[in-house]
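Hi L.,

You mentioned the student needs an example of a multi-chain input paired with its predicted structure. This one should do, with 544 residues in total across all chains.
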Amino acid sequence: MSARIAPVWFYFRTIAVVLLVWWLVSVLLGRPYLLPGPVAVGTEALELASSGELFNALVVSGERLLGAYSLAVAVGVPLGIAMGRIWFVNDLFDWLIEMVRPISGIAWIPILLVVFGISNAIPISIIFIAAVFPIVLNSQAGARTVEPNLLGAAEVLGASRLRKVFQVIIPAALPSIITGARIAFSVSWMALIVAELVGAPNGVGYAIGFAQELGRATLVLAWIVYIGIFGYLIDVALRRVQTMLTPWAAGLKVGGTT
Amino acid sequence: MKSVGELLRPAIGSVRRRGKPGPLLREVPAIRSALRVVLPITLLVVWYYLTRNQGEDPRVATPPGVVRAFGELWASGDLLIGTLISFQHVMFSFVLAAVSGTAVGMLMGYFRAVDHWLGPLVHSLRPIAPYAWIPMAILWFGIGDAAAMFVITYAAVFPIIVNVTAGVHSIDRNLIDAARVLGASQWMTLRRIVFPGALPGITVGLRLAMGMAWIAVVAAELATGNAGGRGATGGLGQMMFIFYAYEINLNYIVVCIIVVALMALASDRIMQRLQRRLAPWQADGR
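Structure written out for the whole complex:
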């Protein structure tokens, strides 16, 4: 068996066993409102997809995720690079960030609920707060570790400040920036689900909470399956993007800060 | 061959030294400390001035209001109870995740067959946001401790499995082979070679998991609170829910958030210590 096929076969083998055990347990338990069988969940999942419910929820959640995440990148990367390269910018934000960072995005939910009520603003602010810190800290770490000789060489060769930023610092910091951006995206995905579950009038997180209020375990599990699939696809896509943008960093060990 | 940097080093040095004589601003420690407190203090003052005439509105948090709220919550005992309950949720879930995650991670890293069988399951469950399980946890366990701890354990276990597996893979294969050739049993190899060798990975995983647990505890207690209404006995997250939904008071919520953040920070420092002690050769600075 070739090495390429093996993992796929292993994957199906395990999933088949899990589905079998799941089906056996659900039959033996005999309480479909607690543990529906895989067939019922699969049917429900297909129903969600064909009725357009899945698509609608994904569009709503995806817009929030991308919007808030882009905002976090737009703020976090320049701030992180400035902190990594300019000592007084670093000093100015250092303690503030260290004070606010231990407060997780999720912990802001009750405050924002009082301020905004249940609305679109909740998931967007939560995602932004959750995503911005990994991005700032990893950009900062990346900008700090730029080889000084490279900067010196650029300076000697007459590069302007702007050119040094765009042609030396950013490329050198890119592996670290992208690692931060990748961590931030998976954190955002989790923050999105819980923010919508508690504080939004629609979206994937809301849908799964609503299914629970209806007491429909089948529907809850169907949504969980989709959340897993999209979490997985996001992770694969981000790894792809990472190797595409910074192929030279593949062998490099870039430790990310969450 | 010399690199460009090395060739240019003398020239670079002269550019660097071109600076003005005397101590640079950035070399004065007092200036650097002063800069660090500028923003936190400014924000505090701005917050105070913007809210100084709204002290009676429970939907607005004010600095004096937060201090007063802390005193009231402390005096009533709710703060202590809530903190202890949340701490209990986190610790129970963390220990459960640490034991099971380390065991699974070590076996997956060491035995190829275990990796082939369990790997796909782990990699299927891992991308599911832990908070997506909250509704299911409520259906299965009802509102309360069990549901919260299920979600926290779920959030904490995957960073451990992934890092422990990576830690085992980073062990020099020759060490394991040498132990086996010299007659060590599988169990002894696991205990004497694989476990110590994987310690850096284990401690990294445990530290990440502790961070995840303190994030998840708020979400779990908050969301299981939708129908809970158990007050402080449901933990800090539950208290926040009460102060949002029933007795609206933003000052109380801010107190709870600060306490959660301090607990998370303290736990992280302890985990960092542990990391330095158990795997001093690979502990990172932060």
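You could point out the following to them. The mean pLDDT of chain A is 89. Chain A has two domains: 1-30, 34-249.

Best wishes,
N.
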